[in-house]
Amino acid sequence: MRKVVAGNWKMHHGPDAAAGFLSRFRPRGVSETVELILFPPDLSLRAVRKAARVPVGLGVQNIHWEESGALTGEVSAEMAREAGASFALVGHSERRHLFGETDDQVGRKVRAAVRAGLVPVVCVGELLKERRAGWLADVLRRQISAFAGALEGVTAFMVAYEPVWAIGTGETATPEDASEAHAIVRETLGARTPAAILYGGSVNPGNAAELMSAPGVDGVLVGGASLDPGVFAGIAEAAAG
Length: 241
Ligand code: 13P
Description:
The chain is of the alpha/beta class.
């Protein structure tokens, strides 16, 4: 199975910077072995699509669950699809913890992504205090049960395990931590089989190969280290082995 290397740019790289990134993003020897996906800001989707020199899947970082409506500032899954996205991140920890997104809303967004023909990449992960309290499995099961119903019979979906304490902190889960959490995710999903379970949280070119060789880790979701074309190419090349 091809490893997935996905970059979540968060609120970085407008259209000009996005085009500049793609003109310099030339990972070597990855086309056969790695599935590349980028999640730029919505306004940069078109620039990424036009400037990409290597095959890159395109996704949005957030969607609303309604198809259209008086919802100022929101974007629907259908609009994302029309703009060229194939994937949608749902339930990223920054959406959950900075913008108050609830488990119930995550479930609705997953349903909307499936309705529009987008591949949902649903993020789950525990806070440091939850991990310390021994609640890892409980948190993951709670988060997953809120959207599992939307994935009945769906195989085109991914889950990203992103422990909140490892996001943007430079602190990475060990490969054993990642394998343990991915096993809980897989078990909780039961008969719903994800296309991939990704690990995210301070992934860089130095730790990517080890994390991706951990049992059950099908790829990585990269934040900060996806912003530089050379660094992100290094992660893609690490995935290619
Ligand atoms: P960092 O790689 O910057 O820790 O971010 C991870 C992340 O949130 C990807 O979605």
